[in-house]
Amino acid sequence: MDVLDALMTRCSIRRFRRERVPREVVNKFLQVLFRSxxxxxxxxxxxxxxxxxxxxxxxxxxxxxxxxxxxxxxGILICADPAREKIPGFWPQDCxxxxxxxxxxxxxVGLGAVWIGLHPVPDRERTVRELLKVPESLVPFAxxxxxxxxxxxxxEDRYDPSRIHWNAWGVHEPDARTS
Length: 179
Description:
Blueprint: H1 3-9, H2 23-34, E1 45-50, H3 53-62, E2 74-80, H4 91-108, E3 112-117, H5 122-132, E4 139-147
Antiparallel strand pairs: 1-2, 2-4, 3-4
Helix pairs in contact: 2-4, 3-5
């Protein structure tokens, strides 16, 4: 799949067929995560792969609005490891870049995924920390539910030129000299 096509067609999938994701595919996802950009190449993250249905179900029941975990065959938890930072305060951007890389990789192999935000919601962080035994030194940032899609979402055009400014705020057309 072409990268631009992947970016334009990726969408959140919230219903899955609970079919095992092959280990070689999971390993590719993990390689993609480690290729994510990060400030000063610090890579301040740790990952937890969840492929046991009982654990995914427990997470789905423990957190509001996380029913998608009840059908997902795979979850990958992205945790921030602030001790690995080289430039303090950039780990949220680094972990967000990793999450987006993972979402695109999943879409690229024909599977579906949805980003479940954990940080900065203390109840969600605590729930994930307890169920997955995440050390206190790490911050549960996002949980990506992954699997074969059981839905066919429709694509929508979200382009909004009124929110684009050229060279200065409030200029909504490119300068003829730079076009």
